[in-house]
């Protein structure tokens, strides 16, 4: 990561965290990850809207307008000379004497952000391995909260199986990946879990749905089973950092050698949308 950190309106290389910071003690906060390409933030408005929704759901004051948010994050990207990579942004309820209930309304929240630079962006990944696992997370997965233990344990299990992602299910119904949304294609129709409290409504997910519809494909946002996933023509996952990643191996069984035709088409369409954003 780059060493300069944004903390509540200032930039520092040595931020401190109080032992009673509520994000640290309770996971009482939310986060966002925004991609940076050619020194520019991508889909900033979408990420800000989701940050606002997450904060509203938890009754956390973030103190930004869209304009002040955009300005602060652009300044961070510039000051850290981040060309390609991402910005991590965290907002918490701040520091107060330890008590589960909310602190006094005068307690100042904490927003910090930093950048991470990558040599190249994850454009059009060609393969991906996933395992299926029970979804043991809480019932407000629509909030991008700091409480990530369900995802941490799932990703670790995937990693120990030599896979890149864990595709989660509740009683046989596929919800999403540990840090991605899941799509399947059957007969040219795109299927994904509806954006309710059981999944995070990914920004990439929203663009993929829009692009598929624009290309004339039907998109069905309805729950589907693990069997449906296993027998699908194409499977892919989406996220800000991985964009559209085909799942070519599922539970150690090879599904295909190459991304499917709709997967490739959507990868190209997303890349075009991103290049268009930068113009
Ligand atoms: N689902 C979960 C649980 C996630 O943590 C993420 C991103 O980190 C996503 C989906 C994908 O969201 P986005 O496309 O906005 O990065």
Describe the structure.
With 279 residues, the chain is α+β, with helices and mostly antiparallel strands. The chain folds into two domains: 5-117, Aminotransferase class 4, branched-chain amino acid transferase, N-terminal domain (D-amino Acid Aminotransferase, Chain A, domain 1); 129-278, Alpha-Beta Barrel (D-amino Acid Aminotransferase, Chain A, domain 2). The chain is built from seven helices and 16 strands. A hairpin with a 2-residue loop joins strand 15 and strand 16 (253-254). It starts with a strand and ends with a helix. Residues 33, 151, 176, 179-181, 200, 202-205, 238-240 line the site of pyridoxal-5'-phosphate.
Features:
279 residues; alpha+beta; D-amino Acid Aminotransferase, Chain A, domain 1; D-amino Acid Aminotransferase, Chain A, domain 2; six-stranded antiparallel β-sheet; 7 helices; 16 strands; 29% helix; EC 2.6.1.21; aminotransferase; BCAT-like_N; Aminotransferase-like; D-alanine-2-oxoglutarate aminotransferase activity
Q: What name goes with the CATH superfamily of the largest domain?
A: D-amino Acid Aminotransferase, subunit A, domain 2
Element order: H for helix, E for strand: EEHEEHHEEEHEEEEHEHEEEEH
- What is the approximate shape? globular
What is the share of helical residues? 25-40%
Radius of gyration: 19 Å
Structural class call reads alpha+beta
Q: What's the short version?
A:
The protein has 279 residues and is of the alpha+beta class.
